[in-house]
Amino acid sequence: MSEIENITDGGRPRRWSAAEKLRIVAETIYDGKSISAVARLNGVAPDLLYRWRKPMLEEGCIGVAEDDSVNGNRTVREMESRIRELERQLGRKTMEVKILKEALDKSRAKKPNLLAQSLRRGGSP
């Protein structure tokens, strides 16, 4: 079961199991209680209850039960960070290839000149 950390009164961390989330969200839907009242009764911040409720209404029980960070923002940030790092690495490799191609072109341009100079001096090809 996934859990989420919520800081409640007193500043102590609180963990909510998926079953607790589902029960609390169900109170707002089936018992006809307001979200603020349910939040107060259960010691949950109303905005957190809204965030739990949204995926449940959109995706059903799975939306809340599988929720790793309520809305997956942590996963998105990790993936964006990984993409940025890979883009940096790609940029470096692209520059390396460009530099090596320029060096190869310059060496090819000098090679006929060196060969011609060698022949003038009496060297063999």
TrEMBL record:
One of its GO terms (biological process) is DNA transposition. InterPro entries: Homeodomain-like_sf, Transposase_8. It comes from the Bacteria. One of its GO terms (molecular function) is DNA binding. Residues 69-103 form a coiled coil. The keyword Coiled coil applies. This is Transposase. It comes from Paracoccus homiensis.
